[in-house]
Amino acid sequence: MRIEQLEYIQAVTRLGSLRRAAEELHLSQPALSETVRNLERELGVELLERRQSGAKISAAGRELLPYIETVVEAVDRLRSAAGSYRNGRMIRVGTVHAATVPLLMPAVSQFRGLHPETPVEVVSAQQDDIHRSLREGSMDLGLVNYLGGDDYPPDFESTELLRGRPVVCIRGDSALAARGEVDADDLLTSPLVMMRAGYVMHRFVHRLLGDRMPASSYSADGAEMGKLMVAEGLGVTVLPDFSVINDPLERSGTITYRPLRAGGAEVLLVVQRRRSPSTPQAPLDLHRMLVARARAPRPGGTRPPAPLLTPEQAGAAR
User: Fold this and answer.
1) Which pLDDT belongs to residue 314?
2) Residues 157 and 208 in one domain
């Protein structure tokens, strides 16, 4: 059995006749018919109905068509994967969009210097989706957040990258910017940009506020969207400090942050990959670069896990 034989059956089915399929495939009709006959002999099933007016797919052929399509699609995926390995296998990184600017993007840039032919795809997703993709093998690495005390899934290799505190992200011209700290009651006086359910900060804010919620609130899919909504003046949001410090919007003064007076929880950024006895070298290299960058000395000489910096301290350290 050859893959082109199955592709010919697909063409006859799609076009409705052997003649039209032969024209599209640039084959003579007798040659196409004989190729299909060879497949029929091998399978012991008549796939075409042959009449004086022409030939078309048989009832048995239609019954077997889903299996034929499955085989052809699998071969297409194999060819695509082989092409990816020839040209540099794509690395897929799932992220909840925490510390994208200070950590992920510089690591990806460094990775391209070592693997210039290997494409990198960064996928924004929730933690559960990242975990599912890691288990399926459709993602190589995942960057996810945990609250202090959370357990890591045992089927992943988990490496802590950054450790920080929840802070309130606000516009630079907000009245809250004049305060040294913000408490939970202050969050009830402004529209609140909430992370969607499935993000760690959604869980933290509900733990912080309990049943109390501001009259006006929005929902955002990840820290990057939350920061943009704050920059547009739609409200305030609660994020890990490492998602705000050194962000371009924070450096420009468009947004800033204030510590939470009662925000005692720690937030951890963790890189995870599926436990496997054989992992390609390229994902291992990107993993190593993420860890090295996270553990490099920070501005001012600190190393993670770093104490929470006030905006003034962070600015002085730059």
Assistant:
1) 44
2) no
Residue 55 sits in the same domain as residue 101: no
**Coil, strand, or helix at residue 80?**
helix
Instruction: DSSP for 121-185, please give it.
Output: EEEE--HHHHHHHHHHTS-SEEEEEEETTPPPPTTEEEEEEEEE-EEEEEETTSGGGGSS-B-HH
Tell me which residue has tokens 């993602």.
139
Q: Could you identify the residue written with the tokens 């951890």? A: 268
Query: When comparing pLDDT for 52 and 60, which is higher?
Result: 60
Q: Are residues 244 and 190 in the same domain?
A: yes
Domain carrying residue 15? 3-87
Residue 249 has a pLDDT of: 92
Contacts of residue 109, defined as CB under 8 A and 6 or more positions apart, other chains included, come to none
CA-to-CA distance for 137 and 110, rounded, in angstroms?
Answer: 24
Longest dimension (CA), the chain: 89
Backbone angles phi, psi at 121, to 5 degrees: -110, 125
CB-count burial class (<10 Å; 0-12, 13-18, 19+) for 193: buried
Predicted TM-score (pTM) of the model is 0.64
Distance CA 121, CA 112 (A): 12
Helix %, strand %, coil % for the chain, to 5? 45, 20, 30
Distance in angstroms (rounded) separating the CA atoms of residues 85 and 88: 5
Q: Domains in the chain: how many in total?
A: 3
